[in-house]
Predict the 3D structure of the following.
Amino acid sequence: MNFPGALTAAVQDHPYPLLFATISGAHLYGFPSPDSDWDLRGVHLLPAREVLGLMGGQETVQLMNDPRLEHLQMAPYSTEIELDLVTHDASKFFRLMLKRNGYVLEQLHSPLVVHTSPAHAELRTLAARCVTRHHAHHYLGFSANQWRLFAGESPPRVKPLLYTFRTLLTGLHLMKTGEIQANLGVLNEEARLPYLDELMAQKRSGAEKEPFRGDAAFFEQEFQRLTRQLEEARDASHLPGEVGGETTRALSNLLVTLRLKDLT
């Protein structure tokens, strides 16, 4: 995939070395609108001297509608884009991997890679050992929040409705296979829910705040049905209940290796 030049420029201008930077959000999920912003997510490595010293460093770097990005959204690029950049230091990101946080796993496994490194590949391998049945709670909570957002708006929008079903189907796929899949189009090849194809087409051809036009009561029934399916899949899943100690040690060793390499 050809990315806007502003994305690669943002990676090059990042204040810290990056282990990886990938695209998340609507572009990853398969239903970007023409005016959707670009969500760039990744992991940076704070210098060892900052971590070991008294001054500390930025565990999280976030640049959203930030003046420091203005030069990335202008010439020589053909079109202006909205860019939302968030990266975490490796230590913070590794800790999030050990929790029931599906979002960081989606970033790690995103096929839309703007920047990568050998550590990125190693992290993807270790991530498979971080998945537990309790990740279902992440997707159940996320989908419930998106449904409340959809139901509480007047008029409602297509975006939170798509996010509702995207998270439910990602959770179901994860519980059944242990694999992260965030693209709703790919997920729907198995789910075969025609209304999702229609909603995605509406979102892709419309605006980021495209209004919903349809039967909300029908979608509430579908939301409840898929929620029950995810709960049942969680209870029946053969995924482990917790991350093993060997995986925690492997992540810790990788972090130490990266810090020591920075000192040499």
Notes: The first strand starts at residue 18 and ends at 24.
